């Protein structure tokens, strides 16, 4: 009875492994985003209509530059912020589904099945999102009266969790797509045709070598005496032919020994060092870029020394600090006028750490990902100024360490 039970357990485990695929996880994730949008509407109705727009704002003033009609630290209206938050909640399911359909259209069933890395990442995001939804639902059901401050805290927590889950899930699907791209195989080389000698036309002369081997060797004729010779020549005379003596070769003089080469006292030139190709990012920064869920090292915590654990580069920043950038996203209205829409983004310390280099300074992660050329910055301020000037809102919201308010 015991072996039969173990076989049933193993069969159940195999069935669960086959059922847990990326397609079912994406479906569960989109359902969770739909529940989050319903909860957002419910909390929005219970919250007070007047909320403060000045809570925990961090602004940057850099060199007095202005970008069109926007600038550092320019606060948007509460209506625009509410529209951006609602758009974030309501469009998360569509964005996740579009990313999944792109990979499925290019790769096929193997992308729908997925690998273990993508499955674990998507499962963790589903668990975190459903846990927050459950906690908020329990709080709403257990209390008869909810203060506006409590409703506001629930809204902030729901928005932050939804933003993190959306960015991490899209990154997991994108990295799975990169891992499953087929590598181009080199085409096999065809063998050369065998060499065949040219055929001789009929009636041509044979080759000299063939003529030499086919002809018979020449035999000299014997010379016989003439029958009309005189009687005086009847007597035969014998002649002895002596061999030609070989000339005695004179002994060759012994060759003189070659003189020994004098030692070269000049110092040999040192070989030139080959230039080594420098990396754009530090190895630790590259690991943070490849693993969006990887936390920062203990060196960047309040008791740390703010030094990279790999290259020991010091980063001048405080733990928990956030940089805020306001960019404009102009849209056309019904009267064909471009209406400025300001979007606020907050940049965490993790983005700064994953942008540093071994020799010091920083390199833009967004340029390395979306642009043809790389951008190097001397300090954090120039990096923030570059992000504000050169990158659009669509590029900023793609990074998981840049959060939109």
TrEMBL record:
Xref: PANTHER family: C2H2-TYPE DOMAIN-CONTAINING PROTEIN
Biased composition annotated in UniProt, kind: Pro residues: 183-205, 244-258
Name recorded for this polypeptide: C2H2-type domain-containing protein
Organism (species): Cochliobolus carbonum (strain 26-R-13) (Maize leaf spot fungus)
Residue span of region Disordered: 180-275
Sequence ranges of Basic and acidic residues compositional bias: 259-275
